[in-house]
UniProtKB/TrEMBL annotation:
Residues 456-473 have a biased composition (Basic and acidic residues). Its main location: other. SUPFAM superfamilies: Periplasmic binding protein-like II. The lineage of its organism: Bacteria, Bacillati, Bacillota, Bacilli, Bacillales. It is found in: Cell envelope. This is Extracellular solute-binding protein. Coiled coil: none annotated.
Amino acid sequence: MYRKIHRNSIQIVSKWFIPIFLLSLLLVSACGKEQGNPDTNQKTAIKVMYWDETSYFNSFGDLFAMKYPHIEVEVVSTWELQKGGDSKQALEKFIEREQPDVLMLDSRQFEQLSPSGKLLELEPLIQRDQYDVDSIFPNLVELLKEKGEGRLYGLTPVFQGSVLYYNADLFTRYGVEFPHDGMTWQEVIDTARRFPVEGDENTRIYGFGDQYPLSWESLILTMNSTYGLKLQNEQTGKLSINTPAWKNIYQLALKGWESGAIYTERDSLSLGDGSMEDYYRRQLFLMGRIAMVVGDQSLLSRLDAARQNVRDIDVFEVGMVAGPVDPAAPEYTVDISLRGIYSIRADSPRVDAAWEWIKFINGEDYARIRSRTINNGLLSRMDYSKEFHGHSLEKFYMLKPKLGDGIIMDDAPPGVANELFKLSEREMMLVLDKKKTLDEALQTIESEGQAALEQAKSEQVRAAEEENDKKLD
């Protein structure tokens, strides 16, 4: 409930206050930049892929309309793709039917379409208009080029990243060495175990945790966000969990879980009175009771909000380091999300207008506006994303981003992944109770999970056949 209220308040500010406050800036910029395009002042209309019309205008539609009143935008909602039909075939059919000029793609979709010839290369347009890309996160641009086999087919104004936050006061109090950039999960767990585990639920501290108590599933997902391991073998499509790589993650998770140093569901606080203050008090890192958490940039906003809403809050020094990292690739992070990569359809008849749209949302004016809030992502334009309320954001840009599908299961029927995690939790509890070895548990997860996957696929095929028979009748 509280998160919904907070999000709505952000939308109200972004939709009304920011456009009015910065209208003059945008109008002046429109007169002074990006001239020379032959279609700049011609009335035209483009189709833009986006979640839905309301969220489009809340995000940047109103601002774009102020600066480019001659370009009418029709929003092509991606709702049907969000409902589960987001396979490559479904995406291509959607694009063929709707004919959007601007495509909004996540990293997986971008990786699928970049080498297909369906996206327009942007470099010639960048050179033609002398569009500044130098201040855009260089490693991110290189990543997008890599997925395009050396060519740039899209740009993204924001991205989601994470760092390891720590409570410097707790480290000093208990004489534990501060975290450093590039820590591995082995080092994180070992460091967490150096903090005391004594005390009751209202006073004790934890070496590691999250915004809320970690379930077994969320702990595994948090750790795997560093490695980007898949649940399926890419060649065979079969589940692939009983492997040395997955075993390493499970071993580290078990080590932390058994130690009592991790804030888990078994330590969950009793329900409070439902007030805003209680909402923040249940987030123990904000209250100074967790030494380390892995989090994105929005944690800084929550920290500021907690300090404004909680009486007598324990104010502590916050530190950030880049990581955790995979020791096999310590310079990279796969814990990155690119949900909005914007590209131009290769055969669009309105390339110039579509390019004006992409230039705007990836440009300096929009970055200047977006720099006032970081809840929805980090800016790709680094000049406007250096700090937030006194906290430097440099650690978010330290590691080289590398895309990875991670836990995603290709073409798996809905619900299979959840069933797999229930199976994983059941087996790990048996390991914790010393009733099974880890090797035995992983073998069971893989074999029973594969059987559940095959059954779900068979039921999905049968349901589709029955639906086709109904249509024929």
